[in-house]
Amino acid sequence: MDELIFIKQKNKTTEVLSYQFLESIDKVRVQFQSGKEYLYKRENVKVYQYLEELPVNNYRYCRLGQDPYTNVAQVKKYSCEVEVKVRICFENGSESIVDFENLEIEESVFLNEQSRNIFSYFKKLADLNELRSEDGSSLLSNNYSKVDFISKKTVLTRFLSPSTSQENLQSVATELIFPFGCNNSQFVATKFAMENQISLIQGPPGTGKTQTILNILSNILYRDQTALVVSNNNSAIANISEKLAQPEISLDFLTATLGSRENKELFLNNQSTILPDYLPEFSNDINKDINMNDLVQVFAIKEQEADIKSELALIETEYKHFQDYISEQNILETDLSNLSSKKFLELLLDCENLFEQHKKVGFLFKLKSLFKYRIKNFTFYEQDPMLLATTIQKNFYDSKILELKKSLSKLEHQYQRLSGDDKIMKMESYSEATLKYKLSQRFVPSGKRKSFKNEDFDTLKSSNDFLKEYPIVLSTTFSAKNCLNKSVIYDYLIIDEASQVDIATGALALSCAKNVVVVGDLQQLPNIITREIGEKAERLRTENKINRCYSFRKSFLEVMTELFPDEPQTLLKEHYRCHPKIIQFCNHKFYNGQLHIMTEDKGEENVLIAYKSVEGNHARSHANQREVDIIKQEVIRHYHLNQDKTGIIAPYRPQVNLLQQQVGTFISDTVHKFQGREYDTMIVSTVDNYITRFTDDVHLLNVAVSRAKEQLILVTSGNQQRPDKNISDLMGYISYQNCDIKQSQIHSVFDYLYKQYEKRREVYFKNRQRHSKYDSENLMYELVKEILLSYPDLDVVTQYRLQHLIRDSSLLTDAEKNFSSQSRTSLDFLIFNKLTRTPVLAIEVDGYRYHRHPDQIRRDTLKNSILQKYRIPLLRLPTNGSCEKEKLVSVLSDYEQTTTIILSEGVVEPIE
């Protein structure tokens, strides 16, 4: 019979030959293998009967607080009344008996077949990793080969099977601390991190990504939890370590930089056996003299201030271009300062409706306007219709700018009344005091602390003891599994710069923790994978029938965002690094205008500068001596640049080598080496004679531009570039911001003016539920907006006046000049580049019957001719036509390379 016999709480199973319960005397007679026989009290003898055999494969057993059992052959469960014991039999024939209540049983993620298959795929991917050991084997593959068990407690369980329910749900974070400061986005990101097993943080340049990580770590420490912080970028890890070591916070005594053998040795050789005196005099009853709701209000005001400043800068720049447009026109100066910008748009709409009906401004209209707009000077309406509209538009700009400045002043006073800066400082002070007081209960200042040896990293128990002393471990992502015992499970894993981590490396790191915070930016540099490795990896994926989400070609951050679309994702929106003119390019080009620019535009000159070399093929083998000469002889000398505050970026190593040889006192490097760094002035050399896909990469451009704090200088080829290039967008943006319009035959698009006007039009047609009075235009407007969702650099305005486009009318005949100057001559839709404000495509919706009229044919012919002369493509779509969406998508897909004008029915006519 399979049973366990315990006498006086000791296992005597192998020594007992037989036993007999003597109920009459409440004793037990026990005969031993030795031949001896004894009587025991009934309570001293317990016989545990076999219940069941527990599984071994993909299960792990250990005593609470001890290392897991290894080489387990069999596990059996026994019971005696309510007590349960477990016999663990090992492959060498020995065994261990454990009380069931003291036994920890863990399931492996490999119990799930899907998880097992995906992990097997990761192991194969690991062999493609280019980091090799001395024997030529993949270091990452070696790390994978050591893994024989992964606890279901780890967040890797959900990564391998995203549909798995969240087992490690965090409690609602009732109290959060922010000793490193905070803003609205950082508050939300920290809250999500502390309340969810998986949280994602997108940190655009200069938005306080590291600060957010430090606040999350502070809250982890406050909860007596542990964290492993990893990154592929050594400088990112060093930055976090340095920030924790700052004298005003002094938390570095709780961190250990491990991972590689060298890092471990360095740590062990420099560990201190005495705790620092990190704790100032804080009383037990720390006073929290701040309300979180007040802080939220303070954050909201700062965001509103930033947004109004951005809007003000936008409209003031556009107004400069508008003033160029009206500079040669005889605008009637009339005092209309009593009208709001909204009223000016209503007045413009009233006048437009009148002109569309071919009516003049009569006495009745003037009388109504007297009461509605308080315009007493009736000569105001005697201007030419086009001049009248232009006068109203100018006054709209003046009024709107004044209104924005008043709103800004009001917010600034509101912030001062709330003592915003004081509240934020108090929050930081309170957070630091609260954290350090909590830590002092566990780490006595100036007290002794345990010292560790290299072998202490080997066992689970000693590794957990290590984490009690050093709850924050820093490492590269690659070495995450090597920091401590392979079975250690941290409370949190924080992966920084996750866009540079590949999926195989990131997945193995997930096996180390219960919860994960993934931090990065999809718009910055991704991990680099060669074409050959990418193709091998893709074959592995298809052969193993693995979901596309797990493609090796995607960065770890990209995979996480696809696998967990419903998990909290926070975009850090408050930007603190670059001059507004610099970062607004990145904001609108890469972040859809979502950033709040917290830096100040103080009217500095030469913030954005572009140098073009003379035309020619100056680049050779990815080096361009002409651009180096411009940097040496023109840029550095003219702007008296400080070598310690200036960085020079080039896309290619040969150009960097050339720069380092000839401008050696200045820091020059590739874009990849500059990520995470910043300089007052950045010089960007594009090198190529004709911009290539590599140089034009959006991630490289985003990083290059956003390194500049105060000044960005672009040095590029003078050769004509294709307008579809991102570099061309940057050139156009610089030109627009600097109002460099001397060579242009057309005006930039007055986007702000027309967008505000469209809003008023929508109100006007609201009762009819239309954007326009024509159904065909309403339908087309919705279609255009839908299509432009796939073209983030483009936008559309409606009923755009042709005269607002034409800057140099010398190309036009008298008939064309007269036609373009009429108030009714407009484009149904004008699609334009949001960054450069240059027109891309005009669209006309032609009513089938109306456009057969001789006068309309004449007008259409004139409009076609004018747009052709200014090289603005035109797409005419008849109301009785079909496939409008396909035609528009076809044109936009290749609009930058097309120098054509498209007439009725989509017929293409080349421009000579």
From TrEMBL:
Transmembrane segments: none
Domain DNA2/NAM7 helicase helicase residue range list: 182-529
Name assigned to this protein: DUF2726 domain-containing protein
SUPFAM superfamilies assigned: P-loop containing nucleoside triphosphate hydrolases (SSF52540)
CDD domains named among the record's database cross-references: DEXXQc_Upf1-like, SF1_C_Upf1
Domain of life from the UniProt record: Bacteria
Signal peptide residues on this chain, from the entry's feature table: none
Domain DUF2726: start-end pairs: 774-888
Gene3D superfamilies to which the protein is assigned, alphabetical: P-loop containing nucleotide triphosphate hydrolases, VSR Endonuclease
Chain ranges of the DNA2/NAM7 helicase-like C-terminal domain: 554-717
A molecular-function term among this protein's GO annotations: helicase activity
